[in-house]
Amino acid sequence: MNKYRVELMVGVFVLLTIGAILLLSLKVANQTITNQGDTYTLFAKFDNIGGLKERSAVKVGGVIIGRVASIKLDREDFTPVVELSILQEYNEFPETSSVSILTSGLLGEQYVGFQPGFTIDGIENLKDGDYLQDTKSALVLEDLIGQFLFNRGKDE
Amino acid sequence: MNAIHALGVKTISRFAAAGRAALMLFGALFAVPRVKNIPLTIKQVYVVGVQSLLIILVSGLFIGMVMALQGYTILVDYGAEASLGPMVALSLLRELGPVVTALLFAGRAGSALTAEIGLMKATEQLSSLEMMAVDPLRRVVAPRFWAGLISMPMLALLFSAIGILGGHLVGVDWLGVDSGSYWSIMQSTVDFDKDVLNGIIKSFVFATVVTWIAIFKGYDCIPTSEGISKATTETVVFSSLAVLGLDFVLTALMFGIE
Amino acid sequence: MDNLVEIDDITFSRGDRLIYDGITIGVPKGKITAVMGPSGIGKTTLLRLIGGQLLPDNGDIRFDNASIVKMSRGELYETRRRMSMLFQSGALFTDMTVFDNVAFPLREHTKLSEDIIATIVALKLQAVGLRGAASLMPSELSGGMARRAALARAIALDPDLIMFDEPFAGQDPISMGVLVKLIRELNDALNLTSVVVTHDVTEVLTIADYIYILADKRVIGQGTAQQIRESDSELVQQFLKGQADGPVPFHYPAQNIEEAMFGANP
Description:
The structure holds three protein chains of three kinds. Chain B is mostly helical.
């Protein structure tokens, strides 16, 4: 009886731990976002990606539609290429859509802001493997300050 | 001259103790494992693991809650309270989970192990095992060592998990951080291999050290009431210091060089 | 006479302190041999030497003509199954019931089924009069009962040799009588060889077949109870009669008290 209880409690302990591992891997580390549904891939070239990282979010008006899958440097023109994996359920963005790298809050995470473009006849939807043409780079604070000082110098 | 002599004696006895500790561990671990020892190990997992569950869960919950409270007051000034999630999760997974669990474990289970084995020695139970042709290393030390090694990482995982839930309770339910951003920013920041797995590795290292110290101190103690009380104190002090020191080394190795 | 254990001219020291200086003791088969001596001369150490838990500096110890000193660890563990030891405190495992304590050596060393083990344990407990206490925990037993339970455990595997470490220390007269009777009866009934280490003179003289008296690192007297009583050694007589001072001095070796307190006289 007592022995049975010991084994039972150890079993509960093991189950609790498995629960904790599941919580940590699914809810906290989000191991399986890419498996949460089919995705398709889009590419975007930026001049400067700032602090964007792999697994950063891709949002439309604040709604997450995908994640940054990888960041590489184009070997020919030396600009960063960002691979975005977008959930298949959002597959009707027109070719005229644009992306920009934005920051949440003053010091927050950087993410990819996705602006759906206008739709008129003759404009096709984005397909797997397409490049987004209209991109806006991340704001780099040093560049901004530099520009500001340069402009002031011209004014005087 | 006397001081030098005393120092020499002390140094030699420390080395001898380290040697005995290594021999004990060797004898315990490399003894042929037997099926009979599995129920013994399960029983010890109950003693060192399940019985430490309450203190670990309560501490984890409160530490998560306090971190959320403190983190919120700082982050809200920068409008970055959405980063509360990753702050709580990373601190817990990388540092507080393994370290605080190891410290609590040393106090709760380690001291009990030392006292138990020390008393077994004082009441001649270890000797009597030997005279019954049962190796006390195999019968007493090995199950306790394995149980400690298994239990502590499990406890550390539970600690981190409940801490994150505690952070959610305070940050989201009381202070009004958005629940979605608490989780989603956490998800985009926490990396399973780098953060969760490294935390587990840390915890395994701490488990080895704390359990080893606790068992050795009991096994090697002077079998009197004074000797056992000294050994129990030393277990807590030495394993706490070892955990904190090792934590620095491991952190430097894991996160220091990027 | 056939000796089960032979201790042959051993020297043993702990740290810098010499405990034994050339002791020779023979333990005849099937008899009760008593080793007596004042407290603190390492009688328990002698039993640990026989059990191979300690090794002598010099000399040899043989169990059934095999040298314990030269045995490998495996052989030693094999040999220990044929001996058992009753510790002063009983050394029952405090986390098990009396039943499990007695069953412990059977479960460790045999592959008997639980039914058979239960029967054997019941018989052994019956022999020491504790069958009714099988389900108690050691903490619920009195000192005398604990020692009897430990005795049941010690005979569980039917050993050849059983060593008693101070079996009478701290017992009330009734428990003491029970233990004396048990040791004698078990020895005869199970054809055991017993070694009793003690300083309780009267009890031992009634049951021991052969007696050794240790003092001052040596054997100072030996013989049957009758021979010991009639010994003309001052030391033996002091021990038997319990005189405070004599060849075994009352004072621990120290500086003369007058010198220590008033300074050495010129």
